[in-house]
């Protein structure tokens, strides 16, 4: 049997970068695993996770999906308890995979979130597997520049922070956008990579993908936050 890795994957830039770096390091990533949260989540990227199916096809790696109905834990009284509850279906899915593949580790895209990383590391310890987290504690701007230099095409699909208006929806995260985000970081404290939930992204193309993903969408805006709603998505 080969040493198999599972990429915890949402389609956003951070999990995509973790996957890309794992492949660059020669890790045998044999599965992508996407959790589809039902509503807001402390642990997972939420918007448009269904697009992970197209990414999996473009990358050529089998996708495992955890459906909203599998998230059976009731709303917890505090964020910590809810985070623990949200982790349960992910751990169950990985436990099941251990019976199918020679699972040696998972990839994760956390940059600064102790909340997420502590729980994922604890899960890995319980399962006896490794954690590959190439973004952890790295400089956010340097990470963003590295993504662009590698050829990632990143779309902003949700915003919820001061200074981010409707014009950011569907915008490409390029050099000009990063410069503006640095200014917004100084003015409002917006995280340059959006790790505080200020914005969410989707990677439509990258060096690890055989085909680019073309998106068509509508935008929704509610006062101080908004998102895009995908109407069509296809591989070019």
TrEMBL record:
InterPro entries, sorted: Diphthami_syn_dom, DPH6/MJ0570, MJ0570_ATP-bd, Rossmann-like_a/b/a_fold
Keyword ATP-binding: yes
Keywords, in A-Z order: ATP-binding, Nucleotide-binding
GO molecular function: ATP binding; diphthine-ammonia ligase activity
Gene Ontology biological-process annotations: protein histidyl modification to diphthamide
Stretches assigned to the Diphthamide synthase domain: 6-233
Entry annotated with the keyword Transport: no
Protein name per Swiss-Prot or TrEMBL: Metal-binding-domain/4Fe-4S-binding-domain containing ABC transporter, ATP-binding protein
Upper classification of the organism: Archaea, Methanobacteriati, Methanobacteriota, Stenosarchaea group, Halobacteria
């Amino acid at each position: 049997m080969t040493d198999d890795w599972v990429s915890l994957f949402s389609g956003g830039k951070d999990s995509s970068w973790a996957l890309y770096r794992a492949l660059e390091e020669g890790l045998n990533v044999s599965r992508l695993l996407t959790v589809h949260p039902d509503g807001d989540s402390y642990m997972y990227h939420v918007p448009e996770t269904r697009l992970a199916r197209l990414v999996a096809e473009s990358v050529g790696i089998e996708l495992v999906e955890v459906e909203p109905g599998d998230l059976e834990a009731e709303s917890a009284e505090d964020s910590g308890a809810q985070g623990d509850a949200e982790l349960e279906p992910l751990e169950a899915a990985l436990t099941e995979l251990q019976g199918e593949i020679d699972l040696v580790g998972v990839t994760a895209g956390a940059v600064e979130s102790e909340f997420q990383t502590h729980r994922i590391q604890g899960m890995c310890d319980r399962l006896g597997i490794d954690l590959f987290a190439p973004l952890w504690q790295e400089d956010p701007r340097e990470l963003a520049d590295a993504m662009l230099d590698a050829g990632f095409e990143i779309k902003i699909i949700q915003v919820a922070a001061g200074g981010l208006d409707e014009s950011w929806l569907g915008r490409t995260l390029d050099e000009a956008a990063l410069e503006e985000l640095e200014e917004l970081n100084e003015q409002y404290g917006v995280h340059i990579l959006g790790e505080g939930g200020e914005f969410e992204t989707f990677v439509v193309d990258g060096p690890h993908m055989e085909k680019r993903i073309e998106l068509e969408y509508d935008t929704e805006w509610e006062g101080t936050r908004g998102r895009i709603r995908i109407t069509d998505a296809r591989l070019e």
